[in-house]
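Batch job 17 of 40 flagged for manual review because the log was empty.
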Amino acid sequence: MPQAPSIKISWKIMLTMGIYLVALGGFLIAVPKPSFREAFTAFPGNSWTDFTSANAKLSELFLIMEKFVGANVLSAAVLVVGITLPSSSK
């Protein structure tokens, strides 16, 4: 039984989203400072370097939490890609 056109395009959209999430998760794990620095500056209005110099241990904890978020995104992305690829062959 051939696939409907809507199914043919939907798995491509989901696969594209999964690949984007793999890249995003990898970026958050590899280089968390640039992404977190902008978010931190926007929230309290203080600079990240001032916060780091005042609270070294707490700033390190924030960066570890950012890497953890990246690991969660990466694991979800691997699941999305793993579920989407077999559905493309049906």
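Reviewer: the log was empty due to a logging misconfiguration, but the result itself is present. Residues 33-85 form one domain. Unflagging and moving on to job 18.
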